[in-house]
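Sequence in, structure out. First:
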Amino acid sequence: MADLDPSIPADIDTTRPSVARMYDYYLGGKDNYAVDRAAVDRVEQAMPEIRLLAQENRAFLRRAVRHMARQGIRQFIDIGSGLPTAGNTHEIAQSVIPDARVVYVDRDPIVLAHGRALLATDGNTRVAGADMRNPEGVLGHPDTRELIDFDAPVGVLLIAMTHFLTMEEREGIMGTLYDALAPGSHIAATHVTRDGHSREAVEKIESVYAATPTPIYFREHAEVARFFDRFDLVDPGLVTIDAWHPDPDDPAPAATKWLYGAVARKN
């Protein structure tokens, strides 16, 4: 596979793997570089199911967004949205609520460029350049404020994102999100786990991500559950993502379980 256009903008670092571009490659996309593909190859040695897990993760996103929309949520913030792919959040939400509004949030320059190009003519979507580690910047971004009414319920997505936070960062970030959201808001997240996996495999994957700007943290079930403090988990709670309201149209789940997922509500 050839690299992207050689006229690469100066703000795109092709010397280090990017989490967004690695995820794009997991899903079979073309918006990635040799450094990203090499990193994925190393992850795949320890986690052979990684491509199927990425598809499972997208399937969880689809189910979570549909669930929120069916609860009457009409506006969403997709934090760490990644590169556009089939079944984007606005497409899923608008299949239930045609005028649903979605703000995509990411800090990767390729994600921002592709997202804005794709959604330029969609009045109910915005692409905001912000970092989840600065939740005030996410919530107060002009594009967020233009589209999101924080006096009404909001659906917040942190799909495959919380495992890039330290436990110290968790409290402030999740607390800020909770305080900003109206009652009836929902939050959905998925998170990698070390439960049931060898230390060697986990450490190998962590070493790959340590070479990116975003190290990854594998955690046990009880640690992952703390990301939902103060929220009320929606049935069936925090489970492996294949067990959260499975849909017969989803891809067959991987035999090895690496991801927990949940949807939770602010009452």
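Second:
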Amino acid sequence: MEIIDMITKRKLKKMMSVLFISGCFFIGNTKCKGADLEYISQETANYAVQERGYDLPVDEVVKEEAIEDCKNVMNQMKVIYQKADKGTSSNIVVSETVMEEMQEVLKEKNVPVITSAPYSNMANYSKMEEFLFRAEQDLTGDIVLYRINRDGGIERLKFNYDGTDMYLLAVKAVWGMNDNPSIVYVSYTRIEEWKYTEKGWFGYTLCVPKYPEVSEAVDGSSMIRIKPLSDECREVSKRCVYLLGYQGNNLLCSDWDRSDMEGLDYNGLYGYLYRMKYGERYEFSGNSSGIPAEEFENLIMEFLPITAEQIKKWAVFDSEHQTYDWERLGCLNYSPTYFGTSLPEVVEIRDSGEGNNVLVVDAVCDTFICNDAVITSELTVKFNDDKSFKYMGNKILNNGTKEVPKYQYRIKRKN
């Protein structure tokens, strides 16, 4: 069934509901009176709350059941959480390994479970997929999805489809005093629009406050991968594209190859390659005029088929001090875009010969536009026996560059 047909059908059903309520005020030429009018007024008020779609009232029994289930699930994972290395920071973050251990526990409940780790595969995904397939056919049903968060807490997301609209009852729990479960919030919201894509992404937009109730746009969009990625695509996604992203550098969002590398933002790219190599963010002290040339060039050449002379020519280079300019990404040199928050996801890997592999990369954007492939590119990578690799080129498919904002260089390039 086409997505546009499903959305149109839902909107038509809502229109019929409005006509039905409006029609209660007149029966033929006779106006409703007395108790009937009071009943209609209450029904109209209820409809207004329903049409708003957010902060919907929750049946107390349903609410308590959701809270108790959430606490019970937390207690099943309590031992894992207590044994986990939580560091010394007050802002607790557990490792991906710990989240995966928790996922294995919940997997036994035979319900869908994901973690907040990048490229997390959903356990028992077929349950979630079956619910969405039925909803596409206007068949009623519900499903509970658990998401394990980075702080070791969980979200219990219950999706319900009533034949016309889909709703989300969300409960979030964290670890409180003495490692006891503590409920952060319970919310009940209508989903304004939703779709299940061929690539296996469930995208939905919650009803949220809008102008003039709020002065700035509120984003109610989310994307959840249902169909699992292959283990190879997950591993290569983490290794080659996750830390690059689409913000602050243009390696994945521009066309380039060995014969045309002038347009890459080398000064912006340096910090991302540094983190990929050393596992930590680059910190510039600011006590010098820039990054020493040899240090800068060696790192760039490790990941790209380029010479030191070419880097000097195309990057922002201070020949007097033999340094490369550096600026932290901020409001003065970067204008935020929805596209910039996209997650690069490797969905296919092909051997292109000469030791090179072509990675088909989708830019998955879960903010506002809710798109599982804003652009798709073919990233050519050469993997070496020592587990190092070089980026050899990138080609954006289907005129995708027209779909994204013009790239903003971190540092103004000199003529």
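Remark: The first helix runs from residue 3 to 23.
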